[in-house]
Amino acid sequence: MRDLFEGHFAAEPAAEGMGEGAVLLRGLARDCAADLLGALHDILEVSPFRHMVTPGGYSMSVALTNCGAAGWITDRSGYRYGATDPLTGSSWPAMPDCFLALAATAAEAAGYVGFRPDACLINRYVPGARLSLHQDRNERDFAHPIVSVSLGLPATFLFGGLKRSDPVRRFLLGHGDVAVWGGPSRLRFHGVADLKDGDHDVLGRQRINLTFRRAL
Ligand code: SIN
Ligand code: FE2
Questions:
Q1: Which of 2, 48, 124, 151 could link 63 by a cystine bridge, Cβ 3.0 to 4.6 Å?
Q2: Which stretches does DSSP call E strand in 29-165?
Q3: Atom number, ligand 1, closest to the C-alpha of residue 125
Q4: How many domains are contained in the chain?
């Protein structure tokens, strides 16, 4: 009993169920956050944050960029993945090793072995920014999970069901928390409530989210 107890705390992050096939791994990214932010700094020198326009013509309150072979983009013609950054006309920056390692570790801890993301959408929220309920469905194969890493200011993550009208659960995501959803939860609606103002030790008045996906 004692061994089991010790083993549990040594080897596994605190896993909180969010639904079938969906877990919240509190603090999993805390130890590698400095590496992630160092790599992010280099990515931003090549492909900076920008506000994209939705197909409906609205400018998103969340600023975004990407790294990896495929980057998620939106403009008046729709949502899609593209190999080049429309701002620079060049490839998106490569996915850093520490990004890949964290995504694979988190997916495995959630029961998805062998996850190799080719896309990382990087979202930046300042106080007041929000992301309305949506499904992630621009990827080719929904057999792969989504791995979502939170850094900086805490945010209320909205996690609904497979229908837009389904009830929504709210999870407060803090610095280093990682959410993974796949399998029967892969197409759940989700979003982020208006970011509350605050001052984070490391990131100040912002929240950064890394969303890893297998897009192609
Ligand atoms: C997303 O759904 O693209 C981002 C979710 C988040 O910022 O936590
Ligand atoms: Fe999403």
A1: 124
A2: 63-68, 71-75, 78-82, 119-125, 131-134, 146-152, 155-159
A3: 7
A4: 1
